[in-house]
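Q: Got one fold?
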Amino acid sequence: MIEYPQFDPVALRIGSLAIRWYGLTYLFGFVAALWLAHRQARRPGSTFTPVMVQDLIFYSCLGVIAGGRLGYLLFYGWQQIFDDPLYIVRIWEGGMSFHGGLLGVCAAVLLFARKHSKTFVETADFVVPLVPIGLGAGRIGNFINGELWGKPSDAPWAFIVDGVGRHPTQLYEAFLEGLVLFVVLWWYTARPLPSGARRDLGRATGLFLAGYGIFRLLVEFLRVPDAHIGYLAFNWLTMGQLLSLPMIGFGLWLLARRAPRPG
């Protein structure tokens, strides 16, 4: 097993200003999304311009931060608010919900689509390949913060935390929800199609929703549930699993339906 190195969550101090690794992982995710979005916009047949890309990433960043924080407070953080109301604004300490961030991005996509005369699904299909890199980076931030550990394990790759070997579920999620999901989505949306063929709208979005939901569902079996929430049903269903089930169902429906063609 591996001794957890007890990282300093602060990457850089400038006087009284502390720049944390967790915040830098979000910054990396946004920069990566902007770069990837510009690459997508340059693909043959793309209807997204550089100006649209900048608008879309700006709206999405606001959606991720506002939705992620509000979602965490709604789904997980009531006790922290009661104990310390200022916890609401201290996002640099962690406490962001993927499912809340997803809802925030959905709102951002809707606003963008209306402004630029796009459909919601067309815009969502453009956005989803940009998301996994940020998800993976955020899980690395969780690992550096020493939070969201898995259950006890004697596996060779387990990390010793407070004298107990534990599954590094943050790294499992960084690999599956970050790297694997990115490779699948980027390949799916970039692969060449036969002459005259076009991708069905909603398939990329369905692949993202189902893929993330399944990965999250599986890893949560190894993850320790939030202490102030615990298991919600059958002594195994966690809040993360409960919120992922609708994603899986809707994603599979998008993949199975006869989707309209773009254009």
